[in-house]
Amino acid sequence: MTLTKRVIPCIDVDLDEDGNPAVYTGVHFEDLEYTGDPVEMAKAYNESGADEFVFLDITASAEGRETMLDVVRDVADEVFIPLTVGGGIRTTEDIKETLRAGADKVSITTGALERPELITEGARAFGSQCIVISVDARRRFDGEGEHYVEVDGESCWFECTKKGGREGTGIDVLEWAREAEDRGAGELFVNSIDKDGTKDGYDIPLTKAVCETVDTPVIASSGCGGPEDLYEVFTEAGADAGLAASIFHFDEHSIRECKEYLDERGVPVRL
Amino acid sequence: MSTVTSDRQQSLADVVVVDYGLGNLRSVTRGLERAGAGVEITDDPEAFADADGVVLPGVGAFREGIENADPLREDLLEVADAGTPLFGICLGMQMLLTTSEEGANEGESAVQGLDLIPGTNVRFAEGQKVPHMGWNELSVERDHPLVEGVDGRYAYFVHSYYAVPDDEDATVATTDYEREFPAIVANEAGNVFGTQFHPEKSGETGLEILRNFVEICRDE
């Protein structure tokens, strides 16, 4: 009897041309493809054995944000598993609004990098358990990092990026992970710019390095192409949860199929 | 004073969800509705007395929870005293106990819980991953109508502190996270109980527990 490893589908929600919320799936944080209606997808995942559901608002606009809170309400009404909502959260008021709309946790990326106190304030007001800090990590093979790991025979550090990888920060992911934990983050989402949309596996060196740096649960993201990638990130990197988007959205693999694969190999999952 | 009422036409029992200004009331409300309850979200203590059952939800920190709920303290104690089912969820369950290490670790005075189930909430040990976040297995320790049909099934937990009731018999179900701790507690009379996990987030198992709760309320 133990805590199970979690398998988590994630949807990126934007507004379509008519201003209606729609799910898009991208490669390398770009080239977005229309995938479906957020509420319908949430309902389907609620039935499918998903352990949690992640909803990312990628509109990054004030008008978009209002619409998204409505969608969060509709999604929360259909989902009886934990719901994490991210995108554009910059203040404790944003956190409160999002939780009130029905989210169980908020995922914060840029808002926390720009003002780390937001983590402290959010954790104090709402509890660490609902503050998820998300990092968009990028591999860098130069001398500017603080912590180096070996990747493909080369020395590499991981940089926190903003705006889906388009903007660097110079901040070392492992330093940031430790600070986020110290400030009260309850969970870390580890995205990889290098792996996003590739379906050739999670960034194992990155995920492993973060897991070894913090005690906070780590959710690996980016690169999942199938059950074997989940197996690898759980057993080799030590992740607590694996997130995936396109493989589930496009029915390449079902969540149940992934969990049965893991169960057969001795990874504890909720079946 | 604010009150939101759902359609009570078809409900099996009328349940009040206590709104003390914190957390996600929407999910628990929807879960209860799905389980057959008519739900009123309110901070009006008069509604407590008329209800078939009262739910004390909770997300967040113990001190803030208790401070926010403090104006309703006497009313909640009356609910318990009257024998009405009082169901604490997560932080709401911890608030049923006497106190918590969580409020005490900031150099401020200890925060008094409702003391309906005597005991303390303590933090997981150093070196353990906290919060305990995720799906874990329920092991039913003793009979209680809340736990019918859920032994060995998985529930969703998110917490850094856990209940240590003074009376071992207060533990209805346990779960194991490097140590065994109470997942469900209840008072001796049986009408005050709580789950450390979130039934409204525990998929079908959670809905089963909410249906059990609605049954308990209906029998009132």
Automatic annotation (TrEMBL), chain A:
* Superkingdom classification of source: Archaea
Oligomeric form and interacting partners = Heterodimer of HisH and HisF.
Gene Ontology BP annotations: L-histidine biosynthetic process
NCBIfam families named in the record: hisF
Q: Which PANTHER family match?
A: IMIDAZOLE GLYCEROL PHOSPHATE SYNTHASE HISHF, IMIDAZOLE GLYCEROL PHOSPHATE SYNTHASE SUBUNIT HISF/H IGP SYNTHASE SUBUNIT HISF/H
Keyword Ion transport present in the record's keywords: the answer is no
Main site of residence?
Answer: cytoplasm
Q: Which SUPFAM superfamilies match?
A: Ribulose-phoshate binding barrel
Q: Which residues form a coiled coil?
A: none
Describe which pathway this protein belongs to, using the record's wording: Amino-acid biosynthesis; L-histidine biosynthesis; L-histidine from 5-phospho-alpha-D-ribose 1-diphosphate: step 5/9
Q: What is this protein called?
A: Imidazole glycerol phosphate synthase subunit HisF
Cited Gene3D superfamilies: Aldolase class I
Reactions catalysed, as given in the entry: 5-[(5-phospho-1-deoxy-D-ribulos-1-ylimino)methylamino]-1-(5-phospho-beta-D-ribosyl)imidazole-4-carboxamide + L-glutamine = D-erythro-1-(imidazol-4-yl)glycerol 3-phosphate + 5-amino-1-(5-phospho-beta-D-ribosyl)imidazole-4-carboxamide + L-glutamate + H(+)
Q: Which InterPro entries match?
A: Aldolase_TIM, His_biosynth, HisF, IGPS_HisA/HisF, RibuloseP-bd_barrel
Summarize the protein's role.
Answer: IGPS catalyzes the conversion of PRFAR and glutamine to IGP, AICAR and glutamate. The HisF subunit catalyzes the cyclization activity that produces IGP and AICAR from PRFAR using the ammonia provided by the HisH subunit.
Pfam families listed in its UniProt record: His_biosynth
TrEMBL record, chain B:
Reaction equation(s) it catalyzes: L-glutamine + H2O = L-glutamate + NH4(+); 5-[(5-phospho-1-deoxy-D-ribulos-1-ylimino)methylamino]-1-(5-phospho-beta-D-ribosyl)imidazole-4-carboxamide + L-glutamine = D-erythro-1-(imidazol-4-yl)glycerol 3-phosphate + 5-amino-1-(5-phospho-beta-D-ribosyl)imidazole-4-carboxamide + L-glutamate + H(+)
**Cellular component aspect of the GO annotation:** cytoplasm
The places in or outside the cell where this protein is found are:
Cytoplasm
Q: Which SUPFAM superfamilies match?
A: Class I glutamine amidotransferase-like
Which Pfam families does the entry link to? GATase
State the PANTHER family in the record: IMIDAZOLE GLYCEROL PHOSPHATE SYNTHASE SUBUNIT HISH
Single biological process term from Gene Ontology: L-histidine biosynthetic process
How is the quaternary structure described? Answer: Heterodimer of HisH and HisF.
Copy the pathway line from the protein's UniProt record.
Amino-acid biosynthesis; L-histidine biosynthesis; L-histidine from 5-phospho-alpha-D-ribose 1-diphosphate: step 5/9
Q: Does the keyword Hydrolase apply?
A: yes
- Where along the chain is the active site annotated? C90, H198, E200
Role, per record? IGPS catalyzes the conversion of PRFAR and glutamine to IGP, AICAR and glutamate. The HisH subunit catalyzes the hydrolysis of glutamine to glutamate and ammonia as part of the synthesis of IGP and AICAR. The resulting ammonia molecule is channeled to the active site of HisF.
Q: Which NCBIfam families match?
A: IMP_synth_hisH
Name under which the protein is recorded: Imidazole glycerol phosphate synthase subunit HisH
MF (Gene Ontology): glutaminase activity; imidazoleglycerol-phosphate synthase activity; lyase activity
> What Gene3D superfamilies does its record include?
3.40.50.880
